[in-house]
């Protein structure tokens, strides 16, 4: 049991978006060791098909379980929307997604809820379904924002063009007089300062990263897997260029991390993959 307690929590995203979850882990669970993986060779996820996302997630989870993680947090809304239920049935390790924690937090704040997300997450209707299962009276409007992730990954947060794009994406939500706005992609928290210059200050902002870490803390306590010793240094790995990720992430981490390169895909059962894809489609 002690060996499992000391195992790391795995966190993955397509890129730097999941660093918002990592920062919350540092804040809420400072004693836990973390393995962070960014699938930068294949980002953005938000414009891909469900079958592709499921394949990517399964490959990442195979690798993470080989690293002996005790829990995995999908710090990616697109993966949470399109693959979470399928892979939970396949892997023994606890896997948490960001959508349900974000939805629960949103309905506590308002009833006119806007969601900005990747096109794939918006198409899935995952937030609308989760919110209205909790509160059928809540109204939900969703906007797919295909340009946000590439702009963030290119470190163009304060470009004039980025603000124009943000105004375009937020305009239809503001027209519906929303009282709450969910960051339906973990990357989008990096745009918060910019978004606050566009929306009224009365709109409540929901970052699911904070709430998924709260859920992880509770689950670790229930399973008796909370780490009691001090944390090991965070291990970072990417499928793309390690130097690019290291340089980009420095502004949010406060230091320049050492980043490993990992080659994906990792082999898995084609038969089971086809079965899971059929379920999703």
From TrEMBL:
UniProt name for this protein: Glutamate racemase
Pathway terms, separated by semicolons: Cell wall biogenesis; peptidoglycan biosynthesis
EC number: 5.1.1.3
Broadest EC class assigned to this enzyme: isomerase
Keyword annotations from UniProtKB, A to Z: Cell shape, Cell wall biogenesis/degradation, Isomerase, Peptidoglycan synthesis
InterPro entries: Asp/Glu/hydantoin_racemase, Asp/Glu_race, Asp/Glu_racemase_AS_1, Asp/Glu_racemase_AS_2, Glu_race
Annotated GO biological process: cell wall organization; peptidoglycan biosynthetic process; regulation of cell shape
Function: Provides the (R)-glutamate required for cell wall biosynthesis.
Gene transcribed to yield this protein: murI
UniProt GO MF annotations: glutamate racemase activity
Catalytic activity, reaction form: L-glutamate = D-glutamate
Organism: Crocosphaera subtropica (strain ATCC 51142 / BH68) (Cyanothece sp. (strain ATCC 51142))
UniProt-listed Gene3D superfamilies: 3.40.50.1860
Binding site for substrate: 13-14, 45-46, 77-78, 186-187
Top-level taxonomy: Bacteria, Bacillati, Cyanobacteriota, Cyanophyceae, Oscillatoriophycideae
List of catalytic residues: 76, 185
Family named by the database record: Belongs to the aspartate/glutamate racemases family.
